[in-house]
Specification:
about 290 residues, mainly alpha, two-stranded antiparallel ribbon, about 10% strand, globular
């Protein structure tokens, strides 16, 4: 019944697991061996479900994760392949062999002092949310198994935005962020609270296909409106207008009228976030990507 469709917890976890499996190497099921990594916190029970589904059906975990991720997007009102994410992840073969091992991308992960593989510090949530260089390097490394290009990075970050429009932060985060996207040494401490990214404009418990799609649209616009330079709405509007008119090919360049047109990160924090939302600006690192076209 389309009126009873929900963006439930398994759908949300499947979307997250879909990208996290891809982040270590590819969507091939290695995440079942990587749930001990800090960035996979909260995916343990989901991984057990995937493992049980694989045992029951005889289908390899990578195929199940690929299908569950796509179905998760659909369940949450997102047609990923029509939302600018069509080039983010290459086509996958369903029904493959399974290597039964972890498969970490050495450009993104390293072993910590306790012998656990973890994401390199520069690619954790806070640095990539606050620094455009860190965000760009994350995606160059993430897309390294294919042909890196600015177009693929655009598709990838758009899919990232779609996911977080309905997503959430499950645990508090504390650390230092860059206060200047061009100077990684200018930092300040921030505290990130858990919660959905867009709870003020989208009810996480909403039901029905039409309502879910409408909620996703509102949520995506809300994230975009608070993504960059949120203390300078006039400058942000000017930047958007000039990009749409193709007058200014680079987000960090001056405006057509000669006035500065800033497109800076907000330091990883959405200061305008509602009290029932996380204040992490997960899309902040996409503001002013150095090689963005």
């Amino acid at each position: 019944n389309p009126d009873e469709q929900q963006c439930n917890n398994f759908a949300l976890k499947s979307m997250r697991g879909y990208f996290h499996d891809h982040e270590t190497s590819d969507i091939e099921g290695s995440i079942l061996w990587e749930v001990g990594a800090r960035f996979n916190l909260g995916l343990c029970k989901w991984a057990q479900y995937v493992n049980a589904l694989s045992d029951t059906t005889g289908c390899d975990p990578g195929s199940i994760i690929a299908m569950a991720g796509q179905l998760g997007f659909k369940a949450c009102g997102i047609d990923l392949w029509q939302e600018g994410g069509e080039g983010a992840i290459r086509p996958l073969q369903i029904g493959r062999g399974y290597e039964c091992r972890a498969n970490y991308n050495p450009n993104l992960f390293e072993m910590d002092g306790s012998g656990q593989m973890q994401r390199r510090p520069e690619f954790d949530a806070l640095p990539t949310s606050s620094n455009s260089t860190a965000m760009e390097r994350l995606w160059w490394n993430l897309l390294g198994h294919s042909v890196p290009s600015t177009a693929l990075m655009f598709y990838g970050t758009q899919a990232w935005a779609n996911t977080h429009a309905v997503g959430r932060v499950t645990c508090p985060i504390s650390g230092e962020v860059s206060t200047d996207a061009s100077n990684p040494h200018a930092k300040q401490r921030v505290d990130i609270r858990p919660g959905f990214f867009t709870a003020s404009v989208r009810d996480p418990k909403i039901k029905g296909v039409a309502n879910l799609r409408d909620g996703f649209r509102r949520a995506l616009k809300y994230l975009g409106d608070t993504q960059c330079d949120e203390n300078s709405p006039a400058e942000r509007a000017q930047c958007m207008d000039e990009i749409r008119r193709f007058k200014r090919p680079h987000p960090n360049a001056g405006s057509a009228a000669g006035e500065p047109c800033k497109w800076k990160s907000t330091g990883g924090v959405r200061h305008a976030a509602a009290a029932n939302e996380t204040n992490l600006n997960t899309l902040g690192g996409v503001c002013g990507l150095p090689q963005h076209f």
